[in-house]
Amino acid sequence: MNWLVLILAGALEIGWVLGLKESAGFTRLVPSVLTILALVASLALLGMALRSLPVGTAYAVWTGIGAVGAALAGMWLYGDAASPLRLGSLALVVAGIAGLKLSA
C-alpha cells in the first residue's frame, strides 16, 4: 500500500511542477493555488510512505517519478526536445527507479 501512496505522491509532484509553469511565477491565481495544493499533498503522501519505506529509496523513487514525468509532460505539452539521448537518459532513470523498488 505504501508503494501506491508513493506513486501517487510522485504523480502529484509532476502536477505541481507543471503548475509552476502554468502559474507564470505565481501571477495567475487558479494555477498558483492548484500548484500549492498539489505540492502540499505530494509532500504529505511522501511523508506517509516514509513511515514504512526506506528514506533513500522512497525519496529517490518520488524524485525520479517527478523528474521523468515532468520531462515527458514537457515534451508532450510544451514541445520540449525529445532527442534519442534525452529519451535514453530518461529510460536510465526509470531503470534506476525499478532497481530501487526491487531492492527495497
Task: Provide tags for this entry.
mainly alpha; 104 residues
Topology pattern, helix = H, strand = E: HHHH
- Global geometry: flat
Uncertain regions spanning at least 5 consecutive residues: none
Structural class computed from helices and strand pairing: mainly alpha
Total discrete domains: 1
Structure notes:
- It is a single chain.
- The chain is an all-alpha fold and 104 residues long.
- The chain has one domain.
- It is 83% helix and 0% strand.
- Helix 3 (55-78) packs antiparallel against helix 4.
- The model has no long low-confidence stretch (mean pLDDT 95).
Write the topology of this structure.
Blueprint: H1 2-22, H2 29-49, H3 55-78, H4 84-103
Helix pairs in contact: 1-2, 1-3, 3-4
Gist?
This protein is mostly helical. It has helices at 2-22, 29-49, 55-78, 84-103.
